[in-house]
Amino acid sequence: MANYDKQDAQEWAWKNLKGQWTTLMTPFGKDNELDEQGLRQNIKHIRSLGTKGGGCTWGMGEFWSLELEERFNVMEILSDEARGNWLTAAHVTHTSYKDMLNLAKYAEEIGIDLLILAAPYFATKTEKQVVEYTELLANNTNLAIMFYNSPQFGIVMSPEGLKEVCKPSNVVGVKEASFNQQISLDTHMLIGKEKVISTPDEWIYFKQEELGFHQQVMFANTSDWRFDTKENNYYVQFINKASEGLIDKKFYDTHVKAVKEVSDKWWPRTVQKFGGVLPVTLCKYWSELMGMAAGDPRPPLTPFDHTEKLELENDLLAIGHPIKQIAGA
Question: Which domain holds residue 169?
Answer without folding.
Answer: 6-247
